[in-house]
Amino acid sequence: MLGSKKEILKKHGYVLTGDESAVKLCHWVREKLISGRSCYKEDFYGIECHRCLQMSPAVDVCNHTCLFCWRYQDYAVRDENISYDLPENIVEKSIEAQRELVSGFRGDHRCSESMWQEAREPNQVAISLAGEPAMYPYLGDLIEEYTKRNMTTFLVTNGSLPRVLEELDTLPTQLYVTLAAPNETIYKRLCVPKDGASWDDLKKTLSILPSLDTRTVIRHTLVKGWNLGWEREYAQLVRTGDPDFVEAKGYVFVGDSRRRMNLDNMPSYDTIKSFGEREAELLGMSLLKEKRDSRVILLGNQEAGLK
């Protein structure tokens, strides 16, 4: 990664754990430590969000430039011979970085000593910070290294690299696939893939999801004026993936996305819920959980519930 990009990332609060990997403290870690408020992933999936480490092994590498992405993009033209960081080094340095990032909360009267100590020992990792983690060549080894440390792993991918997911030796605890468009036309306009075959690759990823022995979630990032509606088309794609859960989450006007979107692109919670209820009816699913302040709902099979 170029030195200038490293400096920009540092100003944005990233802690670099190598040449191509980084950690950034999630907003919800702060909230949990200071006010006790938890993120929707804690409510939906039972993780402890103050013990969640948010990182990427490929922070400056992505094959999409999604308009709704709130991360700093400006992905450089990359040489194929990138010197990626080794999994064991990333894991050790990412845990060290998380401890450094939470160090300032000790002594704050709003943060208990016990919760601060727990935050220093992360037991959950979200491989989703920036970039496309499936482009990291040692992804399975990275997941295995975190698993060895008794950490659960949530992997978020844009689904454009089905072979990588198919060939993972160690699967994450939970696999998120972003499905932010009901058809190829909207996909190309909103997700702006760099590869013309990405839509077909995404559909292939959906087709292999049922064969992967892990918890799977299809996530819709819904942007008003862009990809809301088309519930039947979404439902047809979701059926192919047969996921354990579907998340419908509203776009938020924050971060770098403000260069491309506007405040009107944020859908209301009621709009998200109405979309989800219509899709759930088409899929034969139920609305299992909802988090109004995060504008997100969780769909799934009522009989199975949360695992």
Structure explained in plain terms:
By secondary structure, the chain is α/β, with parallel strands linked by helices. It has one domain: TIM Barrel (Alpha-Beta Barrel). The chain is about 35% helix and about 15% strand. It has helices at about 5-10, 25-35, 40-45, 85-100, 115-120, 140-150, 160-165, 185-190, 200-210, 230-240, 270-285; strands at about 15, 20-25, 50-55, 125, 150-155, 175-180, 215-220, 245-250, 285-290, 295-300. It is globular.
For the secondary structure, the number of strands is 10
The gyration radius over C-alpha positions equals 19 Å
What is the CATH fold-level name?
A: TIM Barrel
Residue-averaged pLDDT? 93
Q: What is the SS-derived class?
A: alpha/beta
CATH superfamily: Aldolase class I
Walk me through the topology.
Layout: H1 3-11, E1 15-16, E2 22-23, H2 27-34, H3 40-45, E3 52-56, H4 87-102, H5 113-119, E4 124-127, H6 139-148, E5 152-157, H7 162-166, E6 174-178, H8 184-190, H9 198-208, E7 215-222, H10 231-241, E8 245-250, H11 269-283, E9 286-291, E10 296-300
Parallel strand pairs: 3-4, 4-5, 5-6, 6-7, 7-8
Antiparallel strand pairs: 1-2, 2-3, 8-10, 9-10
